[in-house]
Design goal:
Blueprint: E1 8-10, H1 17-25, H2 37-44, E2 46-50, E3 55-57, E4 65-78, E5 81-86, E6 96-97, E7 105-118, H3 119-128, E8 136-141, E9 144-149, H4 150-158, H5 161-164, H6 168-177
Antiparallel strand pairs: 1-2, 2-7, 3-7, 4-5, 4-6, 4-7, 8-9
């Protein structure tokens, strides 16, 4: 998240999540993700609003985050050159990250909304999106025919920092080993 102190974190309830999802799904590399992954990404991202003239960074964007400009403009100074990015431009579809702005000073021009996403989360979602497991699967179990919602399992796992560190191939193997078991309220699951 940017270093500035005069920011306002915008709660998810105040956002038009459908509009935000459409906006983010146009961005690189988020455009390669399945549409169903974008709401998961939004639930784990932080949207912040900054007034005009706010210095977001003095010495570049940190390595662990990626920023996307949603509203307003940014003046980016790096290597003695200054460039301006506006939210409605093609440049705003690209991530603002340490890869390109490792030593940049970034100042807002006008009121700015930025979404901050952990780089690791983007990498995980992109990799997990390539898992070939079907979204739903119908299987036979001791209790009869059961429908498994693998997308729901994946979305739950993504929210866990422990599972986020697993490579996509390991996740696919794990999903293939899971099996549904019907239980009643109060049943002992693990001893």
């Amino acid at each position: 998240m940017p270093e500035a102190e005069n920011k306002r974190v915008i709660p998810l309830e105040e956002l038009d999540c459908d509009k935000l999802a459409a906006q983010l799904h146009r961005c690189s590399p988020l455009s390669t993700m399945a549409e169903a992954q974008i709401p998961v990404l939004i639930s784990l991202a932080v949207v912040e609003r900054f007034p005009s003239g706010t210095q977001l960074y003095r010495d570049g964007v940190p390595d662990d985050v990626v920023l996307y400009l949603l509203k307003g403009g940014l003046e980016i100074t790096q290597g003695g050159k200054t460039a301006t990015i506006q939210a409605d431009s093609e440049l705003a579809l690209k991530p603002i990250s340490s890869k390109h702005f490792s030593t940049a000073a970034i100042i807002t021009s006008g009121e700015v909304d930025l979404v901050s996403i952990e780089k690791e989360l983007i990498e995980t979602l992109t990799a997990w999106g390539q898992i070939s497991a079907p979204e739903t699967e119908v299987v036979m179990s001791e209790e009869g025919i059961v429908t498994i919602d693998r997308a729901s399992w994946l979305n739950s796992m993504i929210k866990s920092p422990t599972f986020r560190k697993l490579p996509a191939a390991n996740i696919e193997q794990l999903l293939n080993k899971l099996e549904p078991i019907r239980v009643n309220a109060g049943d002992l699951i693990i001893r």
